[in-house]
Design goal:
This protein is α+β, with helices and mostly antiparallel strands and 211 residues long. It has 5 helices and 5 strands. It has helices at residues 21-34, 69-96, 129-140, 164-168, 183-210, and strands at 11-14, 40-43, 106-116, 149-159, 172-174. Helix 1 (21-34) crosses helix 2. It is elongated, with a radius of gyration of 22 Å.
Length: 211
């Protein structure tokens, strides 16, 4: 059963054949730079119909991908490549900024398929009880036997913090990459952490004095 991200704070990126890897990576890193508390969701789900609101970010234009199984399977290797590059570039950015953060991005993988009894692979509204009963009645009568067709997809969520709710939904987890620091860099990181803690304490004390 396919479920899309309902959290409006998540950045959702749909990977397509026409999209450029550099664009996907740049957009994801830019989103993390603006607010690293928001997860990045990359997926190969089909494009929603025109009459539905798409929350997906599409960095490239003129996307002519058809929503079918073959194309979805073709985009999965690209999705994995994009994710690996994002994780590597994220660590390099931490190094450039001399960040005190030593771990990279947590990764959650989901694999599933979208089912459409009418043979139209894509986003389909949940079937009502009445529609289901009518469909079953038609099958029993031997009329218009619905053709089952599935569209496999893969969805990967990258986050700076752990998301245990995704594990409960069946996602697999990959630990974040770890930065390796020299002795000098480790010492500098500890000093930066100490300064940051002192600044936070000073700000908190100032707030208490003015209240």
């Amino acid at each position: 059963m396919a479920t899309s991200s309902k959290n409006p704070s998540d950045t959702s990126i749909r990977i397509t054949r026409a999209g450029k890897i550099n664009n996907y990576v740049a957009y994801a890193l830019e989103s993390l730079e603006k607010n690293d508390s928001n997860p990045i969701v990359l997926h190969t789900l089909p494009k929603p119909p025109d009459n539905q609101t798409a929350t997906d970010v599409q960095p490239t234009k003129n996307d002519q991908d058809a929503s079918n199984t073959a194309i979805t399977l073709l985009t999965t290797p690209k999705l994995i490549s994009v994710v690996e590059i994002i994780k590597r570039e994220y660590l390099q950015d931490l190094e450039k900024k001399r960040s005190t953060r030593l771990v990279g991005l947590h990764q959650y993988n989901e694999i599933g398929s979208l089912e459409d009894p009418q043979g139209n692979v894509g986003y389909r509204a949940r079937e009502t009880d009445e529609e289901r009963a009518q469909r079953i009645a038609m099958v029993l009568e031997g009329k218009n036997f619905p053709k089952q067709q599935q569209s496999p997809y893969m969805r990967i969520t990258l986050s700076t913090h752990e998301l245990p709710e995704l594990l409960k939904k069946g996602a697999t987890y990959q630990k974040p990459l770890t930065r390796t620091l020299s002795k000098t860099a480790k010492k500098r990181a500890k000093l930066n952490q100490k300064k940051a803690a002192q600044q936070d304490e000073a700000t908190e004390n100032a707030g208490l004095e003015t209240s």
